[in-house]
Amino acid sequence: MTKFKFLVVAAIAIAIFSACSDNYVYNGYVTLPGEQWHADSLASFRVPVSDTVTFYNLYVNVRNTTDYPFQNLYLFIDIAAPNGATARDTFECYLADEHGKWLGKGRGKLRDNRFLYRQNVRFGAEGDYTVTLQQAMRVEQLKGISEVGFRVELGNKK
Predict the structure, then answer these.
(1) pLDDT tens, 106-128?
(2) Any idea where the domains of the chain sit in the sequence?
(3) What pTM, to 2 d.p., does this model score?
C-alpha cells in the first residue's frame, strides 16, 4: 500500500472512530437466559465512581423481543453506595405505545430502548456503587426481555 493510501485510510478510520465517540462513563448489560426474566433474578452492575463534582445522567437500557406480552415494564432499582447507604425506586418503562406499536430502535424481533432514570445527579462519594435491577411485573417468569442494562453518561449541567 502506498503511503498516500495508508494516510487516507488512517484519516477515514480516525474520523469514523471520533464520530462514534460517546459521553458515557459506564455501560453494562446483563443477558437473560432464554429471553426470560424470573421474578427473583437480579441484574447487578458495579459502577466505579471517581468524580463527585461532575453531574451525570443515569439510564436504564432494555432489549426486548416482540414476544413481550405487555406495553410497559416495571422495575425495582436499588442503588448501594460505597458507604453502605441504599435507595430503592420503582421505575416504569414504556416498551410499546397505546396502540401496541413497539418503541425503541430495532428491526425484526428485537427492540433496544434507553430510558432516562435520573438527570443531572452527583454521586456523594468516590468508590463502587452497586445498581441492581429487578423486574416488578407480578409475573413469575417474564418472557420477551433478552437483556437489561445500566448506563451512566456525563450530564449537561455545569
Answers:
(1) 989 999 999 999 999 999 999 99
(2) 24-154
(3) 0.84
